[in-house]
Specification:
By secondary structure, the chain is of the alpha/beta class. The protein has helices spanning about 10-25, 35-45, 60-70, 85-95, 105-125, 140-150, 165-175, 190, 195-200, 215-225, 230, 245-250, 255-260, 280-290, 300-310, 315-330, 340-345, 350-360, 365-385, 390-395, 400-410; strands spanning about 5, 25-30, 50, 75-80, 100, 155-160, 180, 205-210, 235-240, 265, 300, 335. The strands form three sheets. It has a five-stranded parallel sheet with strand order 2-1-3-4-5, sandwiched between helices. A five-stranded parallel sheet has the order 7-8-9-6-10, sandwiched between helices. β3, α3 and β4 (about 75-80) form a beta-alpha-beta unit. It starts with a strand and ends in a 10-residue tail after the last helix. Residues about 350-360 and about 415-419 have low confidence and may be disordered.
């Protein structure tokens, strides 16, 4: 049975809507103010919220914005007002409201809007994270401000970060709603038909997850594509997980392509640089998994959240998400404890000791990085029992990119007995 949360400070409206919607077969929850609505949303994700704009404690627009900024706006919300304005309706829609109803609400319009909103909610993929939910640390606040400054530009944008740090969240933040969002499954299309990608992304966004892994022919295709952007009114956003100037110096990356991409460059911080956000991120990831019925109901103890915050997270947000999923599936009680976290995460001292065996501070930067990456990937391969699909998810790389990286580092995968 679909559940609808009605938030309105007028008891008569609450009771009337409850009666109408209950007669239609919906389960209805009621909240007379924003405080009660927050408490309800913290316990369960309703399928739809009917939210009054004018309330005495906190107005509906403020509550909507609060849910959006904390990653809790994962359900359709229909705003209600007895004296709304076009500006208010536009603002609510911009924040993320699905629709707007003016009081007094006609019965047929109410039921039609509720039906459309619920259908819309079923069709929308439930995303765990967005840039709005990435954190509140000063580094993340600064990142959001820099992205907002370039949001309306059509020039190419280069986002640099360690693997799994949230480059795609930043790219999606810049993407305009209701326009094409194109992410090629394989980069070979850049070599074979780069302009086909532009055709698909016309008036929208083309996102390339990691241009550092492009071969010479693919780089040439991307350079051609960038030269034709104006004809398609599309924006190209590229991620890079390695130092492109270093690759240019080594002759592995085209210097003209780098010049074209790097005119606007923004660095995305690693998770360890804003580890104060880890508890909120872990709670959000867990609640999303529970709401999607991917895992049983679970919650973290304070000690468990502290243990997560103190970890270095070499795999960044992608690794945190994988660990939260593992904890939720394997914890023996509803509360995930510090002991659960220590069981899943390797002790920091062991990880540092393993890295130190192969890593010398006297090595050139490239060799030092390769040494660290070798230890890092060997750790994840061991942790996932050699399952490359799970390793790829854990470190935040596509499988083709992962295989290429392992080959580059000289890491050989053990053959299974039946291979």
């Amino acid at each position: 049975m679909q559940q609808i949360l009605v938030v309105d400070d007028e008891i008569g409206i609450r009771e009337l809507l409850s009666e109408i919607l209950s007669d239609e077969g919906y389960q209805v929850r009621l909240a007379e103010n924003a405080g009660e609505a927050r408490a309800c949303r913290s316990r369960v994700r309703p399928d739809l919220v009917l939210l009054d704009i004018w309330m005495p404690d906190t107005d509906g627009i403020t509550l909507l914005r609060e849910w959006a900024s904390s990653g809790l706006l994962t359900m359709p919300v229909v705003m209600m007002s007895g004296h709304g304005t076009i500006d208010t309706a536009v603002e609510a829609t911009r924040i993320g409201a699905y629709d707007f109803l003016e009081k007094p609400i006609a019965l047929q319009k109410l039921l039609a809007t509720v039906g459309r909103a619920l259908q819309h909610g079923e069709q929308q993929p439930q995303t765990t994270l967005s840039l709005a939910s990435l954190g509140r640390a000063p580094l993340i606040v600064d990142l959001k401000q820099r992205l907002e400054r370039v949001a309306n530009l059509k020039t190419p944008l280069l986002l640099t970060a360690e693997p799994g740090s949230g480059i795609e969240l930043c790219a999606r933040f810049l993407h305009s709603r209701n326009t094409p969002w194109v992410v090629p499954e394989t980069t070979t299309v850049l070599a074979e038909a780069p302009l086909d990608l532009l055709g698909q992304a016309r008036e929208g966004t083309l996102f390339l997850r990691d241009v550092a892994d492009l071969n010479k022919v693919e780089q040439k295709g991307l350079h051609l594509l960038l030269a034709k952007l104006d004809r398609y009114n599309a924006r190209v956003i590229c991620g890079a997980s390695r130092d492109l100037p270093e690759l240019v110096a080594l002759g592995a990356f085209d210097d003209r392509l780098y010049s074209a991409l790097s005119a606007t460059t923004i660095r995305v911080p690693s998770l360890r640089e804003h580890r104060e956000d880890v508890p909120d991120l872990a709670n959000l990831m867990l609640s999303s998994m529970v709401e999607a019925k991917e895992v049983p109901p679970r919650h973290f103890s304070t000690a468990a959240l502290n243990a997560l915050r103190n970890h270095d997270w070499p795999g960044n947000i992608a690794q945190l998400q994988s660990v939260v999923h593992t904890l939720a599936l394997t914890a023996l009680t509803e509360q995930i404890t510090q002991e659960d976290v220590e069981r899943v995460l390797p002790p920091a001292a062991i990880s540092q000791q393993a890295a130190a065996q192969d890593l010398s501070y006297d090595l050139p930067l490239r060799e030092a990085r390769d040494a660290f990456e070798r230890v890092y990937f060997e750790h994840h391969i061991s942790k996932e029992g050699g399952n490359i699909s799970r390793v790829a998810d854990s470190v935040g790389l596509e499988r083709t990119h992962l295989y290429r990286k392992l080959k580059q580092l000289g890491i050989k995968l053990a053959r299974k007995p039946d291979e």
